[in-house]
Amino acid sequence: HVPPAASPGALSERRVDTGLVNHYELTPGAPDPAPGPGLEAVPLLDEAVFIAFPEPAPGDPDPAPGPGMAALLAARDAPWILASEGTLCHEATLHVCRAAGFTPRARHHADDFATVLALVAARQGVSLVPELATVESPPGVRLVPLPVRRRNRVACRQGSAAHPAVAAFVARLRACAADFAR
């Protein structure tokens, strides 16, 4: 298993033939960055990013008044569940929150989205999560879409996309992504 942030290096070092790379589109219309020198990437899936809140307890006020950025602003003083420092998810969360005028206050750090959502359900904080992570959300989590997207691509070494094994793998991943998008 190679995390998406390490995929370009693993591809360049020939430890893997394909890798998943992702990019948070924080500015609408911003182009995806190149996956790295000597690498090429094909689009796989463009997904929504949500802020995950715990469902309010009976009698508690709704912690997420309004959609989108209003929900983000409502989380300004909440404890946050952040990814580890130095990861793309961590940096994207900091960027989104700072653009809204605040820095999130970390209560927990977790890199596994199932763990993040379990912590949210346990009322330990709020977090940003991509759509793929929400497929099996536990009860007690409320998801509010934000005007942020995550773009997922499959990367390979320049010129290797035509190799039969790489082409078959990429085609299968794209078919699965299309099924998910439907």
List the helices and strands and how they pair.
Elements: H1 7-12, E1 18-25, E2 39-54, H2 69-74, E3 79-82, H3 88-99, E4 105-109, H4 113-121, E5 127-130, E6 141-157, H5 164-181
Parallel strand pairs: 3-4
Antiparallel strand pairs: 1-6, 2-5, 2-6
Question: Could you list some keywords that capture this structure?
Answer:
5 helices; 182 residues; 6 strands; alpha+beta; single chain
Task: Explain what this protein looks like in three dimensions.
With 182 residues, this protein is of the alpha+beta class. Helices cover 28% and strands 30% of the residues. It has helices spanning 7-12, 69-74, 88-99, 113-121, 164-181; strands spanning 18-25, 39-54, 79-82, 105-109, 127-130, 141-157. The strands form 2 sheets. The chain has a 4-stranded antiparallel beta sheet, sandwiched between helices. The protein is elongated, with a radius of gyration of 18 Å. The model has no long low-confidence stretch (mean pLDDT 89).
Number of helices: 5
Structural class designation? alpha+beta
Please, what is the average pLDDT?
89
Outline: elongated
Largest sheet: 4 strands, antiparallel
What's the total count of β strands? Answer: 6
In terms of DSSP E residues, the strand content is 25-35%
Give the proportion of residues in helices.
Answer: 25-40%
Query: Which residues form runs of ≥5 with pLDDT under 50?
Result: none
Radius of gyration: 18 Å
Strand order of the largest sheet: 1-6-2-5
Instruction: Give the distance, in angstroms, between the N- and C-terminal Cα atoms.
Output: 27 Å
- Give the helices and strands as they follow along the chain: HEEHEHEHEEH
